[in-house]
Design brief:
With 218 residues, this protein is an alpha/beta fold. It has 8 helices and 5 strands, in the order E-H-E-H-H-E-H-H-E-H-H-E-H.
Length: 218
């Protein structure tokens, strides 16, 4: 089968990591060779940049600085991890990809979605997921989930919750950005209702995946 690059997107607390882990276990049963990776991060250099982005004060970076760091991390991730895996015949399950920069920095941080698209193209050309699952969850529900994940005893500068701590207007704009992306690219981006039970969400994702598996031959 032709290896596929699959990304998972959504706001804070959408449950991407849980669904990727469940899908990975299922793909193992289907004998589909694959890797799990994430953004920001996914390679040695990109993981160093991750710490700069997901920890610390919410106003740590100017929006464009943040976008450039994200894109630098992604460029390393693509060339060190994603493309080598695909070349080796492995499917790639990625927790976030360039849609996050378009939504987070473009829509929510005010840099413009088209500008962030152009930045991604400048950095790494036409590399893109074959299919993207957008786990759609209401903002308040997602934030309640996300803010319950980190231990209260952890110091603020060690928690990976910098974006979670941004104000509600940021998260509303972020959600709207993801919805707009889904409307613009319905063939690639599939919206999943992430308010359902974990098993029902996984069933919806696997429904699409049966189609992907059938179409991936050759």
């Amino acid at each position: 089968m032709t290896p596929q690059f699959i990304s998972f997107e959504g706001g804070e607390g959408a449950g991407k990591s849980t669904q990727i882990a469940l899908l990975s276990a299922w793909l193992e049963q289907q004998k589909v060779d694959h890797i799990i990776t994430r953004e920001p991060g996914g390679s040695a250099g990109a993981e160093l940049i991750r710490d700069l982005l997901v920890k610390g004060a919410t106003d740590r970076w100017e929006p464009m600085t943040e976008a450039l760091l994200m894109t630098a991390s992604r460029t390393e991730h693509i060339h060190r991890t994603i493309l080598p895996a695909l070349a080796a015949g492995k499917w790639v399950l990625c927790d976030r990809f360039f849609d996050s920069t378009i939504a987070y920095q473009g829509a929510a941080r005010g840099l413009g979605m088209d500008s962030m698209r152009q930045l991604q193209t400048l950095a790494f050309g036409d590399v893109a997921p074959h299919i993207t699952f957008f786990l759609n969850i209401p903002v308040v529900e997602g934030l309640m989930r996300a803010r319950g994940r980190e231990g209260d005893k952890q110091l603020e500068n060690t928690r990976e919750d910098r974006f979670e701590r941004m104000d509600t207007s940021f998260h509303e704009a972020l959600h709207d950005g993801f919805v707009r992306l889904t409307e613009q690219e319905p063939e690639r981006i599939k919206m999943i209702n992430a308010s359902k039970s974990i098993s029902d969400i996984q069933a919806d994702i696997r429904g699409y995946f049966h189609q992907i598996l059938n179409n991936a031959d050759g």
